[in-house]
Amino acid sequence: MNDTPIRLLVVDDHALLREGIAAVIEAHPDILLVGEAADGQQAVERFSELRPDVTLMDLQMPGVSGTEAIQTIRARYPDACIAVLTTYSGDARALQAVQAGARGYLLKSMLRKELVSAIRTLSAGKRYFPEPIASELFEAIAQDTLTTREVQVLRSVAEGLGNADIATQLAISEDTVKGHMRSIMDKLKARNRTHAVAIALQRGIIDSWPQG
Predict the structure, then answer these.
(1) What is the strand order of the sheet 31-37 is part of?
(2) What is the pTM of this model?
(3) What pLDDT, on a 0 to 100 scale, did the predictor assign at position 144?
(4) What structural domains and CATH numbers belong to the chain?
(5) How far are the Cα atoms of 37, 45, 62, 70 from residue 14, in angstroms, in the given order?
(6) In the record, which positions carry 4-aspartylphosphate (predicted)?
(7) What is the pLDDT of residues 30-68, one digit of tens each?
């Protein structure tokens, strides 16, 4: 058995969550918290500096997002073992992070129960996706997702543009915009345009609702 502890990097913009993880890890001598980061840019820098065995990565952080950090780290270090830390099981950001190369998925609400076993599993070279989460993820991967053009249309709707303005902005016909909207509403199971934007924001398909 290898006596060298598993070296862990924790990335989250909430200090309390990082402290909570540290407190759990402290009771397990086979896991060593070697570093922390509060945003995606710091995560990339700390990973390059420390080369941890396992990284736990929050997704919603100021500046560089967790998904972007995962992409950057995996591009430089293809063997990097990174697990997603998220609040929502159905978050599109988490799905994007898994597609970017994350090898595990941890709900923050389950950290106290699953944290140690997840780290050990990931360190052993295996993936870690708890059963209910795995089912949701694979279902989300399998079902139709919005196309790039549909996301562009939805962003324009979020900006308050009507179909004619969206058509002009994207250099497509108004009928094409209407077709995209029908597809978006069907895929998101939305009642109307505003509901579609709200669902997309909640799931992380678009980033923010413009102000003003």
Answers:
(1) 31-37, 6-11, 54-58, 82-86, 104-107
(2) 0.66
(3) 53
(4) 6-141 (3.40.50.2300), 148-203 (1.10.10.10)
(5) 10, 18, 11, 18
(6) 58
(7) 999 999 999 999 999 999 999 999 999 998 888 888 989
